[in-house]
């Protein structure tokens, strides 16, 4: 069973890398989607901050 955790493949805090590992996709894809969501509506920033507190480290 997979468990969502922060990644050691990180640029900031490992959130996007952890989500990419969980989904089995390239971390760059998650980072680009996250950046677009921040630029388009700002929701991505709020979601990232929430993920910092919700997603545990390995």
Features:
3 helices, about 60% helix, mainly alpha, about 60 residues
Description:
The chain has 3 helices and no strands. It is mostly helical. Helix 1 (15-23) crosses helix 2 (27-40). The chain is globular and about 35 Å long. The model has no long low-confidence stretch (mean pLDDT 91).
Name the helicity range.
Answer: 55-70%
Query: What portion of residues belong to β-strands?
Result: under 5%
- List the helices and strands in order: HHH
Q: Termini distance? A: 15 Å
Task: Write down how many β-strands occur, each being a DSSP E stretch of 2 or more residues.
Answer: 0
Largest sheet: none
Compact summary:
The protein is an all-alpha fold and 58 residues long.
Blueprint of the fold:
Elements: H1 15-23, H2 27-40, H3 43-54
């Amino acid at each position: 069973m997979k468990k969502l955790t922060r990644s050691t493949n990180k640029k900031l805090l490992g959130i996007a890398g952890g989500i990419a590992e969980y989904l089995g996709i390239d971390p760059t894809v998650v980072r680009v989607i996250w950046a677009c969501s921040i630029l388009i509506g700002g929701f991505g920033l709020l979601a990232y901050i929430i993920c910092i507190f919700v997603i545990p480290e390995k």
